[in-house]
Structure formats: structure tokens, C-alpha cells
Specification:
The complex is a heterodimer. Chain A has helices spanning 6-15, 24-35, 319-329, and strands at 41-43, 47-50, 53-58, 61-66, 73-76, 82-103, 108-126, 138-143, 146-151, 154-156, 161-166, 169-174, 177-179, 183-188, 191-196, 199-201, 205-210, 221-226, 229-231, 252-257, 260-265, 268-270, 275-280, 299-304, 307-309, 338-340, 356-359, 366-368. Chain A is mostly beta strands. Chain A has three helices and 28 strands. Chain B is of the alpha+beta class. Chain B has a six-stranded antiparallel beta sheet, with helices on one face. In chain B, helix 5 (245-257) crosses helix 7. The longest helix of chain B has 23 residues, at 2-24. The radius of gyration of chain B is 23 Å and the shape is globular. At the A-B interface, helix 1, helix 2, strand 3, strand 6 and strand 7 of A face helix 1, strand 10 and helix 2 of B.
């Protein structure tokens, strides 16, 4: 019964595009996304297409959304008036998004939720112009997904994280480039993630591994970060306040917040002016904790065989951490590469180290900031952390689909 | 040469039309969907008069979702001879074959219904054997028919509000995917409104005013209704005689936010649960830090700060009309000024 007369349809389209109607291309693509059958490939042409509202794909299986290449097929949301993201995929299986660019969305660029099997390949998400707090939050944003593969993607200008994987499981992020975001790549409350061969540069923080309270998927971990180049992440923090990443000090190479079972190895962590790698508990954020099921301490962190380098100079002077650097830690121009807040769980088996093991890192200097006692006894003694943990198993399943 | 060009052109047009026809064809689902609202036969007489046919029952909710000041006509049609069992808490479990019908319109003048109205869209929720299905019908300018539209549309509406002030605003009608943005429970499409607590109130039926639940029971639509005095009743958000400030604010948040902000809803990822039943203050936002709010935080630290509406992210987001900030994310182009005032007062009085 739903037969449209093609000729009438086309003529109507061309003749009467009424004021305030959605752009024809938006309607056409959205219609395709709704009507496509499982297994379909939605091919997008080369060119720049402007949208006023979100596109969405819902409850589909084995769909490929494919452009003609990054920078060739550009979905621009400049002037977006509707919807909280550019493209949203939900409740789906085996979805691939590839060879396209999503630009200037009001909120997140591409959000995928409850998808088992989501691949982003050769996708650029970017906010054009000078990075600022009015940019959207996340570039690539899979949340509550399983089997996540993000490869050869580029993320620029996100006011939270360029590549953000949240509350997900079985994850590979590789061969991506993230720059001029607040966080380049962030793995949050997620399990079984491999993050490798990426280039995170000129963000506020290069690569973050976070566990936060009050969430559905409480416990992340089993995260491996290796063979990445994490360079010059000294960009001033431009996240809107209230967000956890607004607390990341400019000049952070890597930050591990309250996550357990993290292995960081064979990375080049270079010229991040405040800290190469920081390991902190949720207490360090000074946010209240009421979630009884939440474990606020990082533990079982293995940092080995990385190369650290840092030009002599002051760390950030901005924000709370800037104050701590200036008035408490007083490292001057020689800031240690690896900083632990020293806030320990007294009931943990090895509270002195929390099983944070540092071994065989090139040029790595360390300090325990002793934040628990008002930074009174800052210690550069690494002896308690001279230990080795069993390497975590590979999480490459996600990539082998 | 010229003929050749024309031939190529005709060929190209043919190809294009063929591709359009091909694109459209998959919509012919096994159970064909009527292309017009009138084909459903829900109404008698002139379609725009929205006079329900036999077996189509109008209803209303105590505290409805705000939809850009649009007025709504709601109807339910149960399959002949069937009924829905009472349950105190949740949305009623309507049998397969039920259709929920909701027509959105704007009066020309909110002070005087006699000046007429403009019908914009009629949304259906159809309970099929495989689950609920959403359909969207958009009214034509002549107001003689509403046509099926999967990709939604946008238009502009103009009206005089209850104070006689003129308004002109954009109005967005959802595409079918957006329906599930809200009507989503465990990724299943679900009705939101018709729970007994929302239906427990009077309706001016053609044969006199009556409690909706009592009326449904009398007409065989509802079974197992206990003594009305024991049935939960949602307050009317803007009527202080129906509940405390706290109860009315929670009812407003429940219907406007909790379709997503619930443990089995699409915003579960935020950890914020705005169901009226939630008892953990952190879960409904008190001194709770945001998770993925981005610039939606408005530079504020917590979802709700007792006594400080202007430090509360929740208020910031229900005030905003910026698509990257505002809540709810869809289905709203203007701020619900009276709803915002209610939440403001509620936060201010919170200890």
C-alpha cells in the first residue's frame, strides 16, 4: 500500500521545498537508513552534504555505511538545529561505518549504543575552527557496545574525547590519530581493550583510562595500551567545567584513573609537559563518592618498556593541578614522568605499591605525590614499584571479526 | 546530436526514478501499512473533527510530556472483546491488536477554542504480535487527511498563548527511528504514558464526566481494578491541590525525562534515574557528577545542587534549546517555561 509514485515524488521534491523543511538529502539518507534491509550497504556519494538534524540507524543487522573516503564524503552539521548527535546507531549488530567525515555536530559526532559488533574505519570526526568549549563532546562514541573496532580514524577538536569508548567490552583501537581534543583517546568503564599503534598528539591529555562511579557498567579493566606515540599533549584544557576531563591538566601524556588491570608498554611518551603518565584514585578528583559498589583505587597497573622524554620546563600552571605543582609538589622544571597520587587502599594486599609496577622504562622518573597526606612526603623512590605483573592477554578478538 | 542528448537525459531520468522506486520498495512490509490515517477507521465524520468511532476511547494523562506547547488528543482502541489487566506501577500491558492514537495540534488561540486549530501529526503505537510499532501520519495543509511519513518533517506553527501573546516557532515531527529514542525499554519499543497512576483522573466523556479507570472498567476495557481509593494517582504537575511540590516535580521529571533516564532506558549510561520511584538521591541527581554531558554541563559541577537551581546541570539542560545541550534531546524546540519554573522552585526548596 505504501507505494509512492516516483515521478510525483521527485517533482514534488524539486518544486516545493517548503521553508523550514529538512534538507532533501537528509530526508533521502534518513529514509534509506530506516528502510534498508539487514545486510544492506548504504553508499554515500562524494561531496559535502549539510544536515540540520541527526541521522539514525536503529535495530539493524550487518549494515555498512560507506562514503568515498575521509574528506571526500563530508557530512556537515554546521547549523544543526535538531538532535544531540550527527549519526546515532542503536540496538544493532555488525555495523560498519567507513570512509567518511563527520563535521561540526552540535553534540557528539557519531554515537553508537547497544551495538554488538561496531567498526569505525577511515572515519574522521572533527570540529573545524579553533578548539573551544562549544565544540561537541565526543567524536567517535561507542557506549554499551561489544566487539568494538576503531581503526585508521582521525579525531579532531572534541571538547571531551576524540575517541571515547564507554561502558563497553572487547575493544580494539588502532592506527588512529587524535589531536586537538581535550582527551585524545579515552577508555572508560570498559573491559578488555587493546589500544595500539595510535598517534595522540596536541591534546590536553593523550590517552586516558578511567573508571567512574554511578554507572551501569561499574568495573572496567583489562586494558592494554601499547606501541602508541603520545607526544606533546600540551593543549590548554577547553572542556566545559563539570566534566571529568575538565580536570585533566594540560600536558598529560596518559592518565589512569581508578582502573584496575592496565598494562602500558612500548609506547613513546614524549614532551608532555606536566606528566608522562599519571596514576590516580577517584579521591584525587575531590568529587564525592556515594556509589558503594565502586572501587576508587587504581591497582594492578604494569608500566614497562616505554620510552619517556621531556624537554626541561615548567608543567601546567593552570587549574587545580597547576596549583598543586606550584605550591605543593614544587618540581620546578624537572617534573617526573610517572606520578602516582599515593592514595592507597589500606585493606589491599600490597597497599604500599597497590601493585603498580614500573620496570624497564627508558628515561622514566617517578614520584609518589603523597596526596593522601597533603603532599607532605613526596617520594621519588621507585623501589616499592619494582615488580612485574603477568602480562595481560591480547584482546584482539574484536579485530578478528 | 540533439536527439542523442535527449535520449541520454531520458535514460538518466529513468535510471534515477528506478533507483528512487527501488529505494522506496522495501517499505512494503508483509503486513501492509495504511498510507493514510483515514484508512484506519478510528474516526467518524470529518477526520479533522477527531470524533472517535465505536470502540475508540479518548483518554488523558494527569501529567503529560511537554511537546512544545502542542495540545494532544489521545485515544486507545483495544481489539474487540479484549481488555487489559490492572497493574499498579507500570504502563498497562495492552493486548496484541491494541492501537494508541495521539494527535498533536495547536489552537489558533489558546484562550478561545472556537477560533479553530491546526492538526499537525497523528502518531500511532500499534501492538503487533512481534511487539509495538510506531507510525507517523502528517496532516495536510487542507486538514482533510494525514499521510504516512517514515522520515518525519519540519514545519512552523503560529498561535496566541493563554495570555494572548503571539508565538511563531519551528515544529519537528519525528522520523520512525526517533520514536524509539523515547519509546524504548530494554531496546523494545514501548508506550510511555498510559499507566493507572496517570489515568486515575476525570475525563469529560460525551455521556458525562467520569474517572477514566472506572469508565474503562465499566466498558470492559480494564479488569481487576481495586477500590479507586487505593489506586496510585500521579499529581497534576501544575495543580498544587493534587500533590506536594516534591511530588509534582518528580511527576514532571518522570514523564518528561524518565522514559530515557531509567535503568532500562536509553540514558541508563548516564547513571541518572529520574523515575518517580527512585529513592537514592545520587541516582536522581543530587550532587551527582555528570558522565558524558560535555558542554551540556554548562560549566556546572553537579546535576542537582540543593537550594541552588542555577548551579544545577539539570535545570540548565531543561532551559536550553541548543540541540547539543538541551534535554530531552528530541521532540522539543522551545523551553517549557512553566515546567522550568516548577523545577527551579523544587531545587530551591531542596535541603
Amino acid at each position: 500500500m505504501m507505494k509512492l509514485q516516483p515521478a510525483c515524488f521527485v517533482l514534488w521534491f524539486l518544486a516545493t521545498a517548503p521553508v523550514l523543511a529538512q534538507p532533501a538529502v537528509q530526508k533521502a539518507i534518513q529514509k534509506q537508513l530506516i528502510l534498508s534491509e539487514d545486510g544492506a550497504t548504504i553508499q554515500l556519494d562524494e561531496g559535502t552534504f549539510t544536515f540540520t538534524g541527526s541521522l539514525s540507524l536503529e535495530a539493524k543487522k550487518n549494515i555498512i555505511i560507506r562514503g568515498k573516503g575521509m574528506g571526500k564524503t563530508v557530512l556537515s552539521f554546521k547549523g544543526q538545529t535538531d538532535g544531540a548527535e550527527g549519526l546515532r546507531v542503536s540496538n544493532a549488530q555488525n555495523i560498519t561505518i567507513e570512509d567518511l567525515t563527520v563535521q561540526d555536530t552540535k553534540g557528539d559526532a557519531i554515537k553508537t549504543m547497544n551495538v554488538d559488533g561496531i567498526t569505525f574505519r577511515n572515519v574522521t570526526t572533527e570540529w573545524t575552527g579553533t578548539p573551544g568549549p562549544t565544540n561537541g563532546s565526543y567524536g567517535l562514541y561507542p557506549v554499551q557496545c561489544q566487539h568494538v573496532l576503531i581503526e585508521k580514524c582521525v579525531a579532531i577538536g572534541a571538547s571531551d574525547a576524540g575517541i571515547y569508548v564507554g561502558q563497553s567490552k572487547d575493544i580494539v583501537v588502532r592506527q588512529c590519530e587524535a589531536h586537538h581534543n581535550v582527551a585524545g583517546i579515552e577508555i572508560e568503564n570498559s573491559l578488555m581493550a587493546d589500544v595500539y599503534d595510535n598517534n595522540a598528539h596536541d591534546n590536553t591529555g593523550g590517552i586516558l583510562v578511567f573508571d567512574l562511579p554511578d554507572l551501569v557498567q561499574k568495573r572496567g579493566g583489562h586494558v592494554r595500551v601499547f606501541n602508541n606515540t603520545i607526544r606533546q599533549n600540551n593543549f590548554d584544557n577547553f572542556a566545559p567545567k563539570g566534566n571529568i576531563v575538565a580536570r585533566v591538566p594540560a600536558g598529560t601524556g596518559m592518565m589512569i584513573l581508578a582502573t584496575n588491570k592496565v598494562e602500558i608498554f612500548s609506547n613513546q611518551i614524549i614532551n608532555n609537559k606536566s606528566v608522562g603518565t599519571s596514576i590516580i584514585s577517584y579521591y584525587f578528583t575531590e568529587n564525592p563518592i556515594t556509589d558503594k559498589g565502586y572501587y576508587p583505587y587504581p591497582s594492578n597497573i604494569s608500566i614497562h618498556d616505554n620510552t619517556y622524554a621531556r624537554e626541561r620546563g615548567y608543567p601546567t600552571r593552570k587549574g587545580r593541578m597547576g596549583m598543586i605543582f606550584r605550591f605543593k609538589l614544587k618540581f620546578g622544571k624537572d617534573v617526573p614522568d610517572i606520578l602516582w597520587d599515593g592514595i592507597a587502599d589500606a585493606t589491599y594486599a600490597h597497599p604500599a605499591s597497590m601493585d603498580i609496577c614500573l620496570r624497564n622504562n627508558k628515561n622514566a622518573h617517578f614520584a609518589n605525590m603523597d596526596a593522601e597526606h597533603g603532599f607532605k612526603h613526596v617520594s621519588r623512590d621507585m623501589a616499592a614499584h619494582n615488580c612485574e605483573l603477568t602480562p595481560l592477554a591480547s584482546n584482539n578478538d574484536a579485530a578478528n571479526r | 546530436m540533439r536527439y542523442q542528448t535527449i535520449a541520454v537525459l531520458i535514460g538518466a531520468i529513468g535510471l534515477f526514478m528506478g533507483s528512487v522506486a527501488y529505494t522506496i520498495r522495501p517499505a512494503e512490509t508483509p503486513a501492509a501499512v495504511p498510507e493514510t490515517l483515514s484508512e484506519w477507521g478510528f474516526f467518524t465524520g470529518k477526520l479533522a473533527a477527531q470524533q472517535p468511532a465505536n470502540g475508540v476511547i479518548p483518554y488523558r494523562l494527569n501529567t503529560p510530556l511537554f511537546s512544545d506547547y502542542a495540545e494532544k488528543l489521545r485515544f486507545v482502541k483495544l481489539p474487540a472483546g479484549q481488555s487489559v489487566p490492572y497493574n499498579a506501577e507500570d504502563v498497562l500491558a495492552f493486548p496484541v491488536g491494541t492501537v494508541l492514537i495521539k494527535t498533536f495540534y495547536f489552537p489558533v488561540d489558546f484562550r478561545d477554542a472556537a477560533k479553530g486549530r491546526r492538526l499537525l501529526e497523528t502518531r500511532l503505537l500499534v501492538h503487533e504480535p512481534a511487539g509495538w510499532r510506531a507510525l507517523e501520519y502528517i496532516w495536510n495543509p487542507e486538514q482533510t487527511e494525514a499521510m504516512l511519513e517514515v522520515a518525519g518533517d519540519q514545519t512552523e506553527v503560529a498561535y496566541l498563548d493563554a495570555a494572548g501573546k503571539p508565538h511563531r516557532q519551528p515544529y519537528v515531527m519525528p522520523n520512525l527511528n526517533q520514536c524509539k529514542g523515547c519509546h524504548n525499554r530494554h531496546e523494545q519499543l514501548m508506550p510511555i504514558g498510559p499507566a493507572v497512576r496517570q489515568l486515575n483522573g476525570l475525563f469529560p466523556y460525551a455521556d458525562g464526566s467520569a474517572n477514566q479507570l472506572a469508565y474503562w472498567q465499566q466498558h470492559g476495557l480494564l479488569t481487576g481494578l481495586p477500590d479507586l481509593a487505593t489506586v496510585p494517582k500521579a499529581p497534576v504537575w501544575n495543580d498544587p491541590t493534587t500533590g506536594s511540590l516534591d511530588a509534582r516535580a518528580r511527576a514532571w521529571l518522570d514523564i518528561n525525562c524518565a522514559h530515557c533516564h531509567r535503568p532500562d532506558g536509553p540514558a541508563a549510561t548516564s547513571g541518572l534515574n529520574l523515575r518517580y520511584t527512585e529513592t537514592n538521591p545520587t541516582a536522581w541527581g543530587v550532587l551527582k557528577t555528570p558522565v558524558a554531558a560535555g558542554r551540556g554541563s554548562g560549566g556546572r559541577q553537579f546535576d542537582l545542587v540543593p537550594g541552588k537551581p542555577d548551579a544545577s546541570i539539570l535545570l540548565y539542560r531543561i532551559q536550553s534549546t541548543d540541540p547539543g545541550v538541551m534535554m530531552p534531546e528530541v521532540s522539543r524546540k522551545v523551553t517549557h517555561r512553566e515546567g522550568v519554573a516548577l523545577i527551579q522552585e523544587w531545587i530551591r526548596g531542596m535541603k
